[in-house]
Amino acid sequence: YTITVDPTAKGARIDDTMYGVFFEDINRAADGGLYAELVQNRSFEYSTADNRAYTPLTSWTVDGSARTVNDGGRLNDRNRVHLSLGAGSTVTNTGYNTGVRVEKGKKYDFSVWARAESGTNLTVTLKDADGTLAKARRVTVAAGGWAKYRVVLKATRTSSDGRLAVATSGAAALDEVSLFPRDTYKGRRNGLRKDLAQKIAALKPGFLRFPGGCLVNTGSMKDYSEASNWERTRAYQWKDTIGPVERRATNANFWGYNQSYGLGYYEYFQFAEDIGAMPLPVVPALVTGCGQNKATDDEALLQRHIQDTLDLIEFANGPATSEWGRVRARMGHPKPFHLTHLGVGNEENLPHEFFARFQKFRAAIEAKYPDIKVVSNSGPDDAGSTFDTAWKLNREANVDMVDEHYYNSPQWFLQNNDRYDSYDRKGPKVFLGEYASWGNAFKNALAEAAFMTGLERNADVVELASYAPLLANEDYVQWSPDMIWFNNHASWGSANYQMQKLFMNNVGDRVVPSTATGTPAVSGPISGAVGLSTWATTAAYDDVKVTGADGATLLSDDFSGDASRWTHTGRGSWSVQDGQYVQTDAAAENTMVSAGDPSWHDYDLKVKATKKSGK
Ligand code: AHR
Fold first, then answer.
1. What are the UniProt keywords, alphabetically (predicted)?
2. Which residues contact 239 (CB under 8 A, 6 or more apart)?
3. How far is the CA of 61 from the centre of ligand 1 (A)?
């Protein structure tokens, strides 16, 4: 096998920002993840209307009398529910995963908004099954209206199973109960969990795409105050996520759980700056995606979102004297955040409807901020008519950059190394905003690495690329594989993480053209366990069957159960006989796929999904 390199020839220039990360609040990546808050459901806003498994007391237990109240006595109009705790009663929070995680010797800021008719004492304790974890602290609530109270707890032991309890002597109303570690990434208040932020920072990402994904373009596009109860899943709207945390409305997100927005746009920009990454926010284009496929015809709503997008640019870049620059300055960052790229839309399945609205956003942004690159997208697939139509529209309108997404087998990644060799050099640039092969095994990382050499060779076309998703809490998984995994006390990078790190920490300046001749020899065992994974939402799919190339059923399941989302992984033993992949376990004896390339155990499977009628 011969590789010929020509060091004098100049290939594509590779930008330092080429490889970045895509953060989406999926798999509890924010609350219970990167956002360092230790109390779950701190403002009692979890609701059965959002998720059948939730109540306003989810993750709380009560000893004595307590009820959650949604009335005119609320803390504010975006934090509607509070807890009314009877005299002599105690309420206890169970945190995330196995509980509240504290480390010996570290300080934790406890805060609560409280209201009492007559002066009342609150006692704050932190315990696990083995006893106390910090000295109890007392807070005196003065008679009168809502006020914020704070005490500091210092952990005397390390535990991942802690329980935070608040006991009251007299009747009191409580809201926004928080326990926040002082030791956050870069010591920021309302900041990020250190080990996770450090793992992301260690990648040295060139950019940070946020906050989604399907999180951005699903649900209602209306404002919180306008959305009816069934519309409580609302598209990510940046203005909901800034300012004091008790004024950030909890949202029921697309991934089936509630997000507090404690990690919001200010924190994203701050984090991007802290890790030296270019911020790349994505706003909804008023067409829903991810299986929802609804385009709004409400022109006033569209114009409001366009204005919000212009305001976002002012929030990021405007002087501290401008309306939204002042908001940023008041939050603690008078200097601009240097926004240069902005995504409009995420995987819309209606290319014409999306593009008509995208063009309105683009025109308004370019008129006011001609230096901002407005990123379009190619829809959900890497192939097919939506993708082709979206690309045609983007190309004809000469957009700056098109966001592509694809998830596929490692085999596909190996076979498509040349994907961008034939892309039009004069057309829009590519932002590969989401990609991953199906798995976190070494072979997946290796296939991705091989593919990335193709991205790099085409760095004149592919300007940005990010693996997806970034984070997954092992106890709350909606999507797998993921780059970094964690629970409430530990985090670990996958093989794919290590591969991304290798590339991001060693970005070249220029491609050195090379050619290869010969065929590498194939050796090693070609039998063993193989896996497959796939996903869907029960809103759109039911009775899923996975079949081999010959049509025989390998896996089937009726996913009409309670879980609103599922991930299914099937495994079997495989070997190659007479040039064919054969399943050798007892369950079935189906010949699956002709062994085209015997050096790989992977095979192409088809997922057949029957659409539920009426959905
Ligand atoms: O990365 C997970 C999801 O994949 C994103 O939310 C969406 O954009 C894509 O379908």
1. Hydrolase, Signal
2. 308, 311
3. 35
CATH value of 60-183 in 2.40.30.170, 2.60.120.260, 1.10.287.110, 2.120.10.30:
2.60.120.260
Are 100 and 169 contacting, i.e. CB atoms less than 8 angstroms apart? no
What is the chain's mean pLDDT, rounded? Answer: 86
Atom of ligand 1 nearest to the CA of 212: 6
Prior bond of 520 cis (ω within 30°): no
Give the residue carrying structure tokens 């690309």: 391
The residue from 45, 267, 347, 348 that is catalytic is 347
The domains of the chain are located at: 19-32+187-507, 60-183, 528-611
Instruction: Report pLDDT digits (tens) over 337-392.
Output: 999 999 999 999 999 999 999 999 999 999 999 999 999 999 987 778 899 999 99
Alpha-carbon separation of residue 125 from 14, 90, 120, 398 (angstroms): 54, 10, 16, 60
Give φ, ψ of 297 to 5 degrees: -105, 10
Task: Return the structure tokens found at 36.
Answer: 């360092």
Q: Mind listing the pLDDT tens digit for each residue in 116-155?
A: 999 999 999 999 999 999 999 999 999 999 999 999 999 9
* Residues 568 and 375 sit within 8 Å (Cβ to Cβ): no
Tell me the CA–centroid distance for residue 406 and ligand 1, in Å. 9
Q: Please choose, from the candidates 408, 383, 417, 435, the residue with its C-alpha nearest in 3D space to the C-alpha of residue 604.
A: 408
Output the CA–CA distances (angstroms, integers) from residue 360 to 110, 363, 367, 441, in the order listed: 46, 5, 11, 43
- pLDDT band at residue 90 using 50, 70 and 90 as cut-offs: very high
pLDDT at position 576 is 37
Alpha carbon nearest to ligand 1 atom 2, residue:
469
Q: Would you tell me how many other CB atoms lie within 10 Å of the CB of residue 86?
A: 14
Fold assignment, 19-32+187-507: TIM Barrel (3.20.20)
Question: Is 556's pLDDT higher than 50?
Answer: no
- Residue 58 CB neighbours (<10 A): 18
Structure tokens at 587: 């369950």
Taking a C-beta distance cutoff of 8 angstroms, is the pair 220, 284 a contact? no
Q: Considering only CA atoms, which residue is closest to atom 3 of ligand 1?
A: 213
User: What's the predicted TM-score (pTM) here?
Assistant: 0.86
* Structural contact between residues 39 and 545, judged by C-beta atoms closer than 8 angstroms: no
